[in-house]
Amino acid sequence: MLTIALVVGMLAITVACVALGERLHLPYPILMLVVSAGIAFIPGMPHLTVASEVILPLFLPPLLFATAQHTSWAVFRARWRTLVVLALGLTAVTAFVAAGAVWALVPGIGVPLALMLGAIVAPPDPIAVEAVAGPARMPRRLLTALQTEGLFNDAIAIVLFQAALGAVTRGEQLGPMIGVRFVIGAVLAVGVGFAIGWLFRMADRQVTSLAARTALGIVAPFAAYMLAEEIHASGVIAVVVTALETRRNSRPEDGELRITRTSFWNVANLLVTGLAFGLIGAELRDVITDNTDLLHLTGIGLAVAAVTIAVRLLAMVVLHVATRGSMNRAPVDWRETIVLTWCGMRGLATLALALAIPASVPPEHRTMMVVVACTVLVVTLVPTGALLPWLLRVLHLQDDGRATREAVAELSQRAQASALTALKERLPELHLPDEQKRALVKRLKHLGRDLAPFSTLTGAIPTVTGGASTENMPLPEVDPEEERMRRQRMRAARDLAVAAQTVALDAARAEVLAARSEVGIDPAAADLVLRRLDTRMMAAPPRLKAKHATKATPRARGGAEGADRH
Hints:
Largest sheet: none
Structural class: mainly alpha
Strand content: under 5%
Mean pLDDT: 80
Shape: elongated
CATH architecture of the largest domain: Up-down Bundle
Number of helices: 24
Low-confidence stretches: 454-471, 542-566
Number of strands: 0
Domain Cation/H+ exchanger transmembrane: 13-393
Distance between the termini: 49 Å
Radius of gyration: 27 Å
Transmembrane segments: 54-76, 83-106, 180-200, 264-282, 294-319, 339-361, 367-392
Keywords: Cell membrane, Ion transport, Membrane, Sodium, Sodium transport, Transmembrane, Transmembrane helix, Transport
Region (Disordered): 462-481, 543-566
Order of helices and strands: HHHHHHHHHHHHHHHHHHHHHHHH
Organism: Brachybacterium huguangmaarense
Helix content: over 70%
Number of domains: 2
CATH class of the largest domain: Mainly Alpha
């Protein structure tokens, strides 16, 4: 019961830190870490203890899944150089260089233990970057580069950690087999991700309950992670591939489901991120109170942090040269090089790996490794995260939203064109007066404007009416049967009009889903337009939504299939 109370209390503190962060213009994860660390030092305050072996399986799957759904396969195709240089090369080089620094600074530590510590401090944390860089108004191009890096670097760090751990506990040899092991684990993980994505798609098409389909999206990342780890593959890569596949297979008519899942993951991401950073802050109490030589060990940690920052700066220069001539290059100049270097924040993976150091490691070395890891974590997270908005302002790199507005405007026009084409194909089949048909076409000609960033969107589908107003006019006596037939004809005409708009909006959503899988399209802009279309569609009468939810024009179906092919 005490553990449950501590978790609930930490979640409540997370909400308070979010509100305080909005007032102070500070990232709430940084506030959560500082506040939880301060609370942990209150005399008599119980300590929330989580077993090290459950930290990664508990926190990584949902957070990686939520982050990966903000991107697409097209982004990885466009930024494969960034992925190779940062996610794979930089993480491995940082681990080995940091290990060399530790080996030189700590007498008698040995290469395996040094490499284990290097792997712990090597990977920047995708959750920290997402939570800190997003609210700081970082340009989308740079944020996408950081997200691409952060989704995969934990995988190679975990492989290096496990290889070094095997050398320490079982006497295994360190050598080229580490790379072979990573490649095999990555291939298996990709297979697991595609398999879980396919099963998710099949199950999602069979289940009709909105709550059950939302719950299915919660189960998927944990299933992918655990299955991959069970066959000694990379759980991180499996979760990312699963997220990309489930997002790619989204259908135009799943608007209500998309809104529900997005709302859930926004809340879950906030609370789980707060809990994770709160746990990091609570662990700092043990690091500080259980060490008598803290000053010396902190000095080693500062040296290792300086080495990791220097290696990252060098990697950004290499990336700048390697991507020269590419349309999706990042960084493009020295300012962006500084920002991408600045955002090498360590977080949850570093903490979890540090806590996973086995008791068989000599106590003095284990203590040193935990203190160094926490020092690197704090140095790369707290000051950098807190000062990131200031740095972006000084370098004049804060996003003014222009690129997003232009992308949204372009996608809105594409959605409008598809909607009009689908409507005009359907109009000859409708037994409606010409005046109402013209009104339908005219209304959809304003769709692009309604989806624009600065429009006022009510989400309502206006009622189609015709003729002069009869308000305050005396009602003539009519035959009840004729009145009933007249009302029936009016309902039928309205239903036909709404059904036609439903088909048109399905075509618009199919176009946006297909565009989301194209190289050069910002997934965030596509998601914004898609959410507005989904919101507009949800305002349709419930019985018509149920009747036409699974119906789409050939163009809409072709758009959805095109999204699958991409």
